[in-house]
Amino acid sequence: MDNQTIAARLEELAALYDLAGASAYSVRAYRRAAELIRSLPAPAAELVQQGRVRELRGIGGSIEARLRELVETGRLAEVDELRTEVQPELVAVARLAGLAPKRMVELGRALGVTTVDELREAVAAGRLREAAGIGPATEAKVRAALERPRAEPRRGLTLNRAWELVGGIAHALGGVAAGDPRRFRDTSHRLAVVVAADDPDEALARFAALPEVVALVERGERRALGVTVEGVPIEVVAPPPARLGTELVRATGSSAYIEALGDLPAGATEEEVYALLGIPFLPPELREEPYREAPPVLVELQDIRGDLHVHTTWSDGKASVLEMAEAARSLGYEYVAICDHTRNVRVVPGLDADDLRRQGEEIAAVNERLAPFRVLRGSECDILDDGTLDLPDDVLAELDWVQASVHAGQRQSADRLTKRTLAAVEHPAVRSISHPQGRILNHRPPNAVDLEAVYAACAETGTALETNGLPDRIDLSAELVRDAVRAGVRITCSTDAHSVRGLSNMRLSVGTARRGWCTAEDVLSTRPLVEVLSRTRGR
Ligand SMILES: [Zn+2]
Ligand SMILES: [Zn+2]
Q1: Cα distance between residue 269 and residue 285, in whole Å
Q2: Are 274 and 172 contacting, i.e. CB atoms less than 8 angstroms apart?
Q3: Could you tell me the distance, in angstroms and rounded to a whole number, from the CA of residue 311 to the centre of ligand 1?
Q4: What's the 405 CA to ligand 1 centre distance in angstroms?
Q5: How far apart are CA 463 and CA 6, in angstroms?
Q6: Strands, E, within 296-394: which ranges?
Q7: Assuming Cys at both sites, which of 7, 321, 347, 507 could form a disulfide with 38, CB separation 3.0 to 4.6 Å?
Q8: Would the pLDDT of 539 be above 50?
Q9: Model pTM score
Q10: First vs last Cα of the chain: how many Å apart?
């Protein structure tokens, strides 16, 4: 049993616990264990067999017992029990229809139905109104959800969640992940997997049997729409192998982009389809607006030489300087900048001048140990209300790399936020501005800072702007990265990692830069260390 499969089963259990009203704590513990196992480089099944799985952070006795059962028997008895108890199919349809899951489960009980097909029959027979408390409005919603299911989740999925879902399903089916995540949209509305199949029935049956997919709400000859227990719809397309490229192009591009291509020729690969169309291949990240020219050579993950914004246990990170540095080195990087918080953030521990000097000694020791790899002494320094920085200038001047961040006062007027940000951009020690818009996807809108003014000042001073790889930030967004680069600003692709695992979000930051049309030259963190340390202007 591979890690993806184990992770999917744990996720399923977590979702069922959630539905059964288990404590939020245990739901989270299982979700985290699933994430951990998905990202594990070694086979988890072997660790379980060797009795070593508890060495992993966050895996306790009860999760270990479930893992052993899963590895030894291939299933979880509790999943089967919970499935009959909480009826995930009905819950999924409820969420798809925008109804309270509990109400749908009650409805199911009153009508004696447990599956989507049975529910469909009950609706067709007009039996819904037999159930107490079901009025015409609810009936209409259920009917609509079953007849014309929404193909989009109610709220966009962040990149990590979207990739987990489509990536996991693509892996299980031997297909390719497509839809919005393949274009690295910061929130995904269309989730799709394309799998080449001589026998589409078999492929779609395997899709329906996946633990992530609790119900099929639509089923065609070569296409199905499944829904997760959270009510997230996922489309699977199963073309014959000779049309895989065609359907992949169709399932990846925005509708505006696909429409502009006209009729799509049959091709086994995307390259073939583009050749038949007579236009240059376009990387998925750029398939947003109609475009038929040769694209620039976009930055790639392998071009990145270092991560310029990571945290350690000195502030709110989970790993030490040495652990973060070793992990960065094992990713093939040449340098990493330790940028812990300063005192002003308050909600988490921050460093003052003395702390930073002591941290400097630790960094020097790590540098001796890991040379020629370089750990940069850095800071994620708060920009205070008056635009000054949260560390004295002499301390800032000692550092190799300073990120400046607005953390407090995100709701201030455009004027104030812009003044604060510009003061930081113009400070001689500041090298990059972190998460410039301060947005949290699905929670906090972008702040009102005047980015045109910021771009101009950055181009003038050589200060860079970050595209932050935390999945709920992705800030700057791709569209703004493009504007910044056009204005002559260098971009830093950074993860803002608070753990070793967080370093893997570089993929999201680079995906965003690609979506923002960045070449390697546009991204400062693709440059050798000497160039990073000497302030160079954008192009
Ligand atoms: Zn920050
Ligand atoms: Zn940070």
Answers
A1: 17
A2: no
A3: 10
A4: 6
A5: 45
A6: 306-310, 335-338, 374-382
A7: 7
A8: no
A9: 0.89
A10: 50
